[in-house]
Amino acid sequence: MMKKIVMLMLLALPIQLCAQDNTWEKPEEEETQEAQAKVNPDAKYLRGAVPMKDGQVVFSTHIAAPGKTAGEVYDIIRQYMKKMLGEKNQINSVMALEDKENGKVGVAITEWLVFKSNVIVLDRTQLRFVLQADCHDGSADITMSRISYVYGEKKDQQRYKAEEWITDDEAVNKKNTKLLPLSGKFRRKTIDRKDFLFNKLETLLK
């Protein structure tokens, strides 16, 4: 009887160890971010999420491109920017800069940013920005700047610059616990769009 109990305990041991190992699958920082998001869905959009540079809203990121020359990095990014121009959400977007010799390429984007769409409501804004890349051997520096909005239909259109509309002071409450109702939705969707573009370029350059 004692041997049978010992054998059962030994059989159960690997299962317990596996269960313990699973707690280390995600980095602690990632788990913290997920926990914060569950408590407050606005957490990632609060103060500090919209950076300012020389009085302007400028999002930037440095992306590694292992083993690729500056020319190869340029070609990959230019190809993706050209593809962007044909997407159905684009309005009057154009290639704004093509300088392969100096590793610089950019697009001036005007596109629809949709807040809510159903059979009753279509709430959207025109989002305007410049997306530019400085290409190097093994990396690229990406910026998203000159951000502005045209909100509403023809007669009732309102125009906003990012600097007066989605900054910490304009779009986040004083307690830094949530976004303000109107400007906050612009801030949230702009950050989402920036994240999508930066993540897409990072994937392409891997």
Please tell me about this protein's structure:
The chain has 206 residues and is α+β, with helices and mostly antiparallel strands. The chain has one domain (49-205): Alpha-D-Glucose-1,6-Bisphosphate, Chain A, domain 4 (2-Layer Sandwich), CATH 3.30.530. Helices cover 37% and strands 30% of the residues. The chain has five helices and eight strands. The strands form two sheets. Strands 3, 4, 5, 6, 7 and 8 form a six-stranded antiparallel sheet that branches. The model is unreliable at 2-26 (pLDDT under 50).
Task: Report the CATH topology name.
Answer: Alpha-D-Glucose-1,6-Bisphosphate, Chain A, domain 4
CATH architecture: 2-Layer Sandwich
Q: What does the overall shape look like?
A: globular
Number of domains: 1
The number of strands is 8
Structural class call reads: alpha+beta
Low-confidence stretches: 2-26
Query: In the CATH hierarchy, what is the class?
Result: Alpha Beta
Number of helices: 5
Provide the succession of SSEs. HHEEEHEEEEEHH
> Averaged pLDDT, please?
87
Residue fraction in strands: 25-35%
Largest sheet: 6 strands, antiparallel
In which range does the helix fraction lie?
A: 25-40%
How far is the first residue's CA from the last residue's CA?
58 Å
What value does the Rg take, in angstroms? 23 Å
